[in-house]
């Protein structure tokens, strides 16, 4: 094998390796996009869960307030009578 044949062979190998690197880069880019979508979905789910928790807390507080007012109205002296 002559020196120029060796160089040509090495160029072909490098070209093949570059193709593999490009494919790997494309795969990684696709995975990154997928992870980004999953992350955004998780953030949205957490936001919605927090909103629901806030609504539940407000409703629960209102129910407790109603029960407390009922007890105070029905038994103003702590039940002694």
Written description of the protein model:
The structure is a single chain. With 81 residues, the chain is an all-alpha fold. The chain contains 1 helix and no strands. It has one helix spanning 3-74. The longest helix is centred in the middle third of the chain and has 72 residues, at 3-74. The radius of gyration is 34 Å and the shape is rod-shaped. The N and C termini lie far apart (113 Å).
Shape: rod-shaped
Largest beta-sheet details: none
The number of helical runs is: 1
Question: In which range does the helix fraction lie?
Answer: over 70%
Structural class: mainly alpha
Q: Quick one: how many beta strands?
A: 0
Mean pLDDT: 93
The fraction of residues in strands falls at: under 5%
State the separation between the terminal residues, measured CA to CA. 113 Å
Radius of gyration: 34 Å
Low-confidence stretches: none
Reading the helices and strands in chain order gives: H
